[in-house]
Write a structure and sequence with these properties.
This protein is 70% helix and 10% strand. By secondary structure, it is mainly alpha-helical. It folds into 2 domains: 204 residues, Alpha-lytic protease prodomain-like; 82 residues, 2-Layer Sandwich (Alpha-Beta Plaits), CATH 3.30.70.1350.
Amino acid sequence: MSHEHDHAHGGSGNILLVATLLTIGFAAVEAGVGLWAGSLALVADAGHMVNDAVALALAAGAAWLARRPPSPRHSYGLGRAEFVAALLNSLSLLALVAWLTISAVERLQTPMPVQGEAVSITAAIGLAINLLVAWLLSRGEKNLNTRAALLHVMGDLLGSVAALLSGLVIAFTGWTPIDPMLSLAIGALILFSSLRLLREALHGIMEGVPLHLSLEEVGRGMAGVPGVISVHDLHVWSVNSEQTMLSAHLLVEDIGNWESILAQSRELLHEHYGIEHVTLQPEPLVQTINWIHHERE
């Protein structure tokens, strides 16, 4: 079982690594051509591709970290590094958006010549690279990280289309304001994804309940297990984007049925909520009633 899990993570990590190298490699080319050709839209798209490359690298790193065993110093492993890296990535992207906005406004006020043909060719190659990366990710393991990375790349396809459109308009009409206008559109796209990434990173660092889960719904589901009267001290948090932890106290009718209750609770959490790492503490009803009576005396 564990061998298959490691093998799956390894395949996912390899695909993500190839996708990362392709994306970051062409982003450097696109940024260089954009600066040479005077295209802010091309530089903006390169910045967006760097965003995707970092997202892919984070996903590849998470797949690698998932195979790292816990240590005496890090009993949960090093999965939380994913949230720290995402935080730094989102802050750097916000700085990029600020630079793009200022530069685009300056370009609109003082237009500059743009090599439309070079921009069009480079953006077309970038579009092809993004399609190739999307194809690679769609063939990989369908876990949370690869799905998130695929969404990043699909967003970058829009950036490549915008840069391509900018180059074509300039090449055929010479209307250069289209370049800063579309760079603002790409900047808005980067702003949306970076703010979402910042929210997820801060939420993970603060050990919030995973955004795809409802604490109340999980509690109701656990309370519905036969033999369970109520659930309290329920905590759900993430070590990384793929590893969710849960701890709770269960008030049970009969402590003699605890083994069956524990097995059913674990199965419920695994099947319905994807929670594997579970710590549950039973509290027998009779013992709880006696404690309440003692407190009242």
